[in-house]
Amino acid sequence: MPKAAPSIPVLAPPTLIDALAARASERDPAPYHWLPLPPDGAPPLPARGRVVLVNGTLDDLQRLLRPELTIVDVVVHGDTTQAQRFGWMIGAGGSARSLAETAPLLDALAPPARQAWLHLGSGGSAAFVASLLQQWQVQTLAILGWLGGTPRAQWAYDPAIWQQITQTTLAQAQQDALRYLGMTAEQPFEPVHPIPASLQHYFPGKQPPAPIAPATQLAQLLLSIPALPAAVS
Question: Which domain of life is it from (predicted)?
């Protein structure tokens, strides 16, 4: 009797596990072991092999890294209810080989279309983008919290608060951009799929002969944004 293939560990936020597992089970027969992503530390993982990290930040990724493990980092985005029916917007980080091996899971979670997910770059690129999304959510909650305690008449007359909130987010994003670029500086980028031409509209200028990872272009763009001048009180 042939030995069953070992299940592949997939770490994901607890709020997403059930939705991701349900969609994957309908479209990908491979065995997966879905594990909640803890706020700190890492759950017990196999000594070696492949692990998929979903919506983990750069800090989460750093806690998992070790030579014996191949980490494929994935960022998924979208309304959970709609995504269970139509698929998530997905970006993935890792080598071309590791992503080719993980493609059945990514295809199952993405919309049912050809090349429906984006290869963001080498390992860490999706964790970098997931970190940015988390920072954006924190900024949004901070702005909503501020507006909730601010008389409506003052909203348009307090630019210092807006700048303080956005500058905090920009500083964190630029710090993560530097971390990501440092992690991937020596890693060549070989895209699994051709990079969509539409992305070039967001990153103008002459393109080099070798492809640049979309996450790398995003990091460079973030680092080019100057700090806002201090608001005049």
Answer: Bacteria
